[in-house]
Amino acid sequence: MGVSQAVSVNQFDAVDMDKFFNPSSVVIIGASNAKFNLGAMICKTLRDSVNYPGKVYVVNRSGEDVHGAKGFKALKDIQDEVDLAVIITPASVIPGLIRQCGEQGIRNIIIESAGFSEKGEEGKKLQNEIDETACFYQIRIIGPNCLGIVDVHRRFCCMYGSEKIVLPLIQQPGSVSYILQSGGMAEMVAERLTENMMGVNKMVCIGNKSDVDEADLIDYFSMDNTEVIGIYLENVKHGRKLMTSVKQTSKPVLVYKSGKSEAGSAAAMSHTAGMAQNDAVFDGACKQAGMIRLQSPEELHSLPKMFTKMPLLSGNRIAIFTTSGAFGSIGADLLANTDLVMAEFSKETKSKLRQIPGVFNANNPVDIGPAPPEIYLEIYNILITSGEVDGLLHIVGIWQDFVKDVMNALVNFCRRQNKPAALYAYNSMSKLMSARLERELPLFNTAEEAVRALEVSYQQYKYLCQKEEPLWKK
Amino acid sequence: MEKIIQQAIRRGQSVLSEYDSKQVISSVGITVNREKLAGSRQEAIAIASEIGYPVVLKGCSDKAAHKTEMGLVRLKLGNAEEVMKAYDEIMDKGFTLDGVLVGEMIGGDREFVMGLNRDPQFGPCVMFGVGGIFTEVIKDVAFRIAPITERDAEEMLDEIRLSKLLKAFRGKPAVDRKVLVQALVAIGDLGYRCNEIAEIDINPVIISGNQPVVVDALVVLKHH
Questions:
Q1: Which chain B residues touch A276 with a CB distance below 8 Å?
Q2: What residues of chain B lie within 8 A of the CB of A268, using their CB?
Q3: Which of A58, A434, B52, B61 would give a disulfide with A31, using CB separation of 3.0 to 4.6 Å?
Q4: Is residue A367 within 8 Å of residue A353, measured between CB atoms?
């Protein structure tokens, strides 16, 4: 019978996984007061940047304390129970350390050191040694060769050199969780959070993912307070396991994958194998499993607000509301490249719109001239309650301060009516930024981005409908 | 089907001949062109008149994966004389052949490709796309991970850039999508069920009237 379904051997429950994010005590192995010590940076972050409420221990050669964390010469000297070990030492000593952790009863380890499977034969041998030891003690490992974890709500962070990442994160707790196969991506997302009206729940850099991979973390995030899962992947190890995890969660999974140009198998004998480029297969897998494939890394931070601030788009009929004829046409052009359509208005709707003073065009796109706030609100009401419109593309100029107020009202109205609007404004960028921050308006940076937000919202809606089918038990 | 594959493995073949490949895929319900294997000139002529002219002759062997390049294909043969001449030409190439395939000549402007591949991360996956000799150049294909549902197959048909070719086109009727969908589902099931098959290449699938007909196929076996 067919293919071996890759399923994690020791599927572990949320309590175990929780110890990675919410440890009541942690030991940083390799932290010392030597110059440029990465472990020491973690101790400092825990104490000074995130004000971590749990206990921190360190293990180093001299047994010295580091940034207020109690020091020990060996792991076995720590009398208290330790939930999590963070290892940041030369790779060669790590297999021995894993054994000591096992003996000490530690079941969760994050290995941040590099020098494993990414470093040739010698590294692979070390990796195998670690895998075997971890398996024996039933230890779960994140990494190696990774930056570690941030849990914003629990104020835990074991990312080294991460002040820049962690400060904006901690100030803005939220509901988006990230699984990133790169530290650089973590920095990019963290830096753009504030302008994107988005807070982070948890962030994990998975590195070489020798054990815990993106699928395990999707399983975990589908059970915690995460609303949106963002993923940056460089490679997939267990494709079917990933698909199963995605199929089992109802939360939006947004994935950006690099390595599109990776060539297919050179030795392929058939046309099919020759064209079965890794990327085309991944694309099919995303569609089958219900994973939203992102077009740029920036979408990792620009799109989540469409899911956290707005209801899903449950149909493809879009009305454009604009104060600029130009942007009306541009919006319509952009929609034409998607599976969304311009909503067609009935006679009744058109005649209602015509009765409103200041409406230049009672067809879609609805184009208005200078008008007071009541007019805006009346049009929103006509469009959204018409039964002919599933979502709104709102492209306006901020020609008066009240426009921010009407956008605020629109957002609230949309939530009540369970229909989304994607907002873009073509002027007053500085005012806009402050509006986005003060009022938490899901404003997008370009008209393209706003249309894309509607597109992915509808895609997620369709995925949810498809997920109800038991695809794998046909 | 099992018998064909097991026999090929025992003989140490890395691929199945065209004839055997088509036997395997037609055993899961995929329509292939009518054809028979001839062992002599006379047999070739008899088969040709049974099938009806024009016919195609192809030298058949598991060693002949690139028949056209090897000069083993003769198209549009209109009578017994042409069949005889083509038979002799193919035999004169000096390859060891299982025989010469005499098949019905399928006419149609639209050609598609279907296939199966094993991805190192995702396992068996099904492909559909624009076929013919320019397949690799046009590179308009969609993949899904096997097994696939009818809905997946429908999506694949719509996903290729040239999906309009499946609709009514230059006086030709719209393609019978149901047949393509069932074929894709069957390929997925075959790849998922049968571990001995490494790759399948069905190219071209010619649209004759509104019906997709397989004209050439290659089944690649796993290395042993």
A1: 117, 119, 125, 127, 143
A2: 117, 199
A3: A58
A4: no
Query: CB B145 to CB A274 under 8 A?
Result: no
pLDDT value of position A255: 97
Which amino acid belongs to residue A167? L
Q: Are strands B111-119 and B123-130 parallel, antiparallel or unpaired?
A: antiparallel
Rg of chain B over all Cα atoms, to the nearest angstrom: 18
Phi, psi of B221 (to 5 degrees): -95, 160
Over residues A319-332, the mean pLDDT reads: 95
Asked, as a colleague might, if the bond just before B124 is cis with ω within 30 of 0, I would say: no
Residue range(s) occupied by CATH 3.40.50.261 in chain A? 14-304, 310-463
Furthest C-alpha separation in chain B: 53
CA distances from B187 to A278, A390, A398, A418, B156 (A): 20, 38, 56, 42, 14
3-state helix, strand, coil in chain A (%, to 5): 45, 20, 40
- Determine the pLDDT at residue B1: 85
Q: What is the CATH number of domain A310-463?
A: 3.40.50.261
Q: Do A280 and B142 touch (CB under 8 A)?
A: yes
* CA-based nearest distance B69→chain A, Å: 15
- Which residue among A3, A237, A270 places its CB closest to the CB of B220? A270
User: What domains sit in chain B, N to C, each tagged with a CATH number?
Assistant: 16-25+108-221 (3.30.470.20), 35-104 (3.30.1490.20)
The pLDDT score that the predictor gives to residue A270 is 65
